[in-house]
Design brief:
Blueprint lengths: L2 H13 L11 H27 L6 H20 L7 E2 L5 E2 L2 H22 L3 H15 L3 H26 L5 H13 L5 H21 L3 H25 L1
Antiparallel strand pairs: 1-2
């Protein structure tokens, strides 16, 4: 199989063809999901806005982002049952989507880093990104990495777990993507909103295919950890 066909088959298995499952909630569970998800979404959006307004190096940034992760996870588990999900394998069977999701995360990372080579030469786009990355430059990188991974997992548990399950099936991918992007608008970083749209769309499609949060979480943290570690030096090179 040539590389193009291989890539097409991979994307079809990861993002297009759903794994059979039946995760339908009873009406009272669905009502609880919707109420808890709505409250969690509002509280989380405000906390994200506040945490990104803190000056780089402020110790309270660690506290607020950790509490934010707790809000996403707490709201998700209060809403009802969550599922890990399963993905397609080359053998035509089903398994936890670990390797597939890692590969998808690395593919996204490569696309974003390639885009950064262009963004780094456009001051009005690179400026807000550099301001956001100051939280890494003026802080402990290992601590920020842990927080980044923790929040990536927490976001997927909520947005592709509880919130996804609370939305009517025909709108799940589009609605969770739009709401995920809307939450990041308060950051004031246009490229962060753009990234949220792409990551939200890919992870939403993964959730639709696998029926769970494991695949989206692995893809998300692979991408976010890679961006955290590789984007700052890349922007310094091209700026």
């Amino acid at each position: 199989m040539n590389p193009v066909s291989e890539l097409r088959s991979f994307l079809r298995a990861a993002l297009v063809t759903p794994v059979p499952r039946d995760h339908r909630d009873e009406e009272h569970v669905l009502r609880r999901r919707r109420l808890v998800s709505a409250v969690t979404l509002v509280v989380g959006a405000v906390m994200l806005w506040w945490s990104l307004r803190l000056p780089p190096g402020d110790p309270s940034f660690y506290v607020w982002t950790t509490v934010l992760a707790a809000v996403w996870v707490g709201g998700a588990f209060l809403s009802g049952r969550l599922y890990l999900g399963q993905g397609h394998t080359r053998a035509g069977e089903y398994a936890r989507p670990v390797v597939q999701s890692l590969a998808l995360g690395l593919l996204l990372l490569a696309v974003f880093l390639a885009g950064a080579l262009v963004v780094g030469r456009i001051p009005w786009l690179a400026g807000p990104v550099n301001d956001l990355l100051d939280h890494v430059r003026f802080a402990s990188v290992p601590v920020v990495l842990v927080i980044t991974v923790m929040n990536g997992i927490a976001e997927e548990i909520f947005f592709r777990g509880a919130l996804y399950a609370a939305i009517p099936q025909r709108w799940t991918v589009l609605a969770t993507t739009a709401l995920y992007a809307l939450v990041t608008v308060g950051s004031g970083v246009p490229l962060l909103v753009f990234a949220a749209v792409l990551i939200g769309l890919v992870c939403g499609l993964q959730r639709r295919v696998t029926g769970g949060i494991l695949g989206p979480a692995i893809t998300h943290i692979t991408w976010s950890a890679g961006m955290l570690l590789l984007l700052p030096p890349l922007l310094e090179i091209v700026s």
